[in-house]
Specification:
- With 93 residues, the protein is of the alpha+beta class.
- The protein has one domain.
- 33% of the residues lie in helices and 27% in strands.
- It has 3 helices and 5 strands; from the N terminus they run ββαββααβ.
- It has a 5-stranded antiparallel β-sheet.
- The longest helix has 16 residues.
- It starts with a strand and ends with a strand.
- This is DUF3567 domain-containing protein.
- InterPro entries: DUF3567 (IPR021951).
Length: 93
């Protein structure tokens, strides 16, 4: 898991899929088949996990940001658009 962004309002992590070799070496250990992004809304204490086509669209947004550095306001406006999807309460484990 890689922390991509953190502010007072949000945290964004890139959750990488486990390599096939890792899954074979550790039978019974949970593994992700594909990558995703976890967006935590610190204001509400909820998070959303994006995978599949949602993750692909978010990855494209990140690639655009890498080419043209956005302001913090632009990043947070984009992340705020995902807040409506956040239903899971953040649980520390």
């Amino acid at each position: 898991m890689n922390l991509l962004y953190e502010s007072d309002a949000f945290a964004v992590m890139h959750v990488l899929a486990n390599a096939t070799e890792d899954a074979a070496a550790s039978p019974g250990k949970p593994s992700l088949e594909r990558h995703g992004f976890e967006i935590v809304d610190k204001r509400s204490g909820k998070e959303v996990y994006l995978d599949g086509s949602w993750a692909e669209m978010f990855q494209q947004k990140i690639q655009v940001w890498q080419q043209h550095t956005p302001t913090q306001e632009e990043v947070e406006d984009t992340l705020d658009g995902y807040v409506g999807l956040a239903q899971q309460p953040v649980v520390v484990h």
